[in-house]
Amino acid sequence: MVRNTVVSTCDALDPVFHDAQRDALWTWLQLEPDSYIYPHYFVVINEAGVSVTVACFQRIQLEALKQQFQQVECFTESNFMYIRYKVGLLFKRLPGTDVWVTPKDMMFWARKLLQLHTMEELIDRFGYDFITSFHVDLNPLFMHNAFPKNTLAFNALKNAVLATDARYAHYFMDSLSAYARQLTPYHQIVQEPVQDGISPHFDLRVPHVVVSYMSFLGCTQEDGIVCRQDVNAFDCCRFYTIRIKIKADGLVMFHPVQGDANETSLVGTVVHFGEALLQLEPFSIHVRTVPIKDQVIQLHFNKPPFRVIQHYLSAHTLSICLEQDHWASTGDKLCSFHGQKLVLRLIKTLPLLDERIQPDLLVNPYSLFRMTPG
């Protein structure tokens, strides 16, 4: 359950500008793309970025945009303007105003309209209930069957905090996310955009594969799916965030490996300039420590190859973000927008439907009866 929260219901599942000149949001924004080779101002709409002129960037009034579309997420950071207008965003009315906000633009509008400049000031004014109730109520019956309910409560609080600001991920343990790095020939445009100078920025591409519903080898279970081995539509890039607890009485420095770690597992080296013995306690089972000498410890991650993207070192915690290319393999799970998950099995060849058609995926027909309606 969510409290005092509404879900946006704009008239498209994931609005993209196939014909920008006829789109209501485009008509209101009237973006002016910047043709300069090194643009300085950008407007990001539903994760698609457009470089715009300075005059265009300064002309867009976000308060008027909120008044016009109401359930639209918008804020600025430096020379970037972010706008999201799609189905499924969670909004709450910012107390004392007529503006509806999401966890992502909440602080921007709190600073702009209420002069609340930090999360602590926002919590002092409206309480923790305001920022956590975007997602879920914490179960008050924690004394009954306490362990699983406390776990659910912690996860609910974690999700609410991360929705407020992803930078707070440093305070949690392992986290993993993935995205499609490169489009493949399987990723086809859903609808060809009009060549009006702006619509091509918003091409919506999805994997276009041939699916056959039948039982075959590893696809005898209702949650099984067989994929032809040469289909690369589901390859992705993973982000791991690993965290290590530090106990030290002096200056601590971390020296990450540079570039791709290839097949080696070395993440970097932690050096301590102090008298007490340096102690590292990884939160992840995939991280191991190797002492080199006094006050020098190497960190290894047992899932190479990877690249160290960034790290954050505080007085007591070291957080490291790793990037890793992942090719779809047997045992992976594929999940649809509505939450149906299937376990993947790769195989070299699949049976021909006829002389011309060879399926890319085989899905067990029994899975149709357990899918979520909608």
TrEMBL record:
SUPFAM superfamilies: beta and beta-prime subunits of DNA dependent RNA-polymerase (SSF64484). GO terms for cellular component: DNA-directed RNA polymerase complex. GO terms for molecular function: DNA binding; DNA-directed RNA polymerase activity. Its EC number is 2.7.7.6. Transmembrane segments: none annotated. Keywords: DNA-directed RNA polymerase, Nucleotidyltransferase, Transcription, Transferase. This is DNA-directed RNA polymerase. One of its GO terms (biological process) is DNA-templated transcription.
